[in-house]
């Protein structure tokens, strides 16, 4: 049963659901209402910190070593979608909202500031972590600062942006995609921290338009 906190609405929220929508106007799944944890559960990590909602933010406390949440929704899209969310690190020096998301029949994790805060990228590609594959890059995060993330998934590739700066662009067709064992608790969609306290808000999934899917194929070609 889908939790009432999840609303299937037009991306601009301007027309009622029954109204005809333009073919190129995507739909958006609102994944968090800012009020409670309906549709989410605390990930099963030993030594995890507290998880609560404060001021419209899902707050994940410092764990020993991980704290996380995972969606309980059963009908998540697995391709041709864009996931967006905002995340903040309250304290710590490592990842504060590593996001695991569906990719076809498997999943990947966008690590934000892992390995002591030095690496942002995808884990895992062909068995290699973000610290070892071509998606790994350095992005400097400041504590108590909100960052806007977007993750776009198609059959051809994955694209990731932070505050509209593209940080990942990788072709995944024919490659083995999977998550580290530590991220299994947040599959198929979830967030986790490592010895840090972080928060997430404004979580949504937007289905891509045919033009956006075609553009991804073109850029990979």
What does this molecule look like?
The protein is mainly beta. It has a single domain (27-220), classed as Jelly Rolls. It has helices at residues 114-117, 210-220; strands spanning 7-10, 27-30, 40-42, 51-54, 57-60, 66-71, 81-91, 98-103, 106-113, 119-123, 147-153, 157-162, 165-171, 190-194, 197-207. A hairpin with a 3-residue loop joins strand 11 and strand 12. The longest helix has 11 residues, at 210-220. The protein starts with 6 loop residues before the first strand and ends with a helix.
Q: Roughly how many Å apart are the termini?
A: 40 Å
Number of strands: 15
| Major sheet | 9 strands, antiparallel
The CATH topology corresponds to: Jelly Rolls
Structural class: mainly beta
Poorly predicted runs are 1-23
How do the helices and strands line up, and which of them pair or pack?
Layout: E1 7-10, E2 27-30, E3 40-42, E4 51-54, E5 57-60, E6 66-71, E7 81-91, E8 98-103, E9 106-113, H1 114-117, E10 119-123, E11 147-153, E12 157-162, E13 165-171, E14 190-194, E15 197-207, H2 210-220
Antiparallel strand pairs: 1-2, 2-15, 3-6, 4-5, 5-15, 6-14, 7-11, 7-15, 8-9, 8-14, 9-10, 11-12, 12-13
In a nutshell, what does this entry contain?
This protein has two helices and 15 strands. It has 221 residues and is mainly β.
